[in-house]
Specification:
Helices cover 53% and strands 11% of the residues. The chain is an alpha/beta fold and 153 residues long. The chain has a four-stranded parallel sheet.
């Protein structure tokens, strides 16, 4: 049984890396688009990627509780962050166009850092000016119809 677990973990890792590389390539045009259109494009690609990856690795995602599908207005979504899968689940269960508030340190991750730049609002938590600027970017996003997702940690 342990060998099957290791094979599955290997399968999940290979699928993650291969689909993430494809998603990364598909996200590149998003850097050239105007902000709102680029965000729509990155949301579409990341939803596609999350759907493909969770299907291939046989990891169904269910949503419980209040449905956000019926809400029409822009909102601030605050959710728990208990695993690396939270962001993937968010793209599968939140139908709105959204940007995630994320710490600047995440931009240092290979591939993922560039993806965060297309889909998030980055903040340097140690810098008061960066915190103020990220707050303004969140206000601007909300004013243009983009919801904000925050993982308070």
């Amino acid at each position: 049984m342990a060998i099957l677990r290791y094979l599955y973990v290997f399968w999940v890792a290979i699928c993650f890396l291969s689909t993430m590389i494809v998603a990364f390539i598909l996200l590149m045009p998003g850097f050239l688009l105007p902000a709102k259109m680029g965000n729509r494009y990155s949301n579409f690609v990341l939803r596609w990627w999350a759907t493909i990856w969770t299907t291939v690795v046989m990891m169904p995602v269910r949503s419980q509780g209040k449905s956000l599908a019926r809400a029409k207005e822009t909102m601030v979504i605050v959710t728990n962050h208990s695993s690396y899968l939270d962001t993937i689940a968010s793209y599968l269960t939140i139908p709105h166009l959204f940007k995630t508030l994320a710490k600047k340190e995440l931009t240092k991750l290979p591939l993922m850092g560039q993806i965060f730049l297309t889909s998030g609002i980055m903040v340097d938590r140690s810098n008061p000016e960066s915190r103020k600027a990220s707050y303004q970017r969140m206000v601007d996003a909300i004013n243009t119809g983009t919801s904000i997702m925050i993982f308070p940690e």
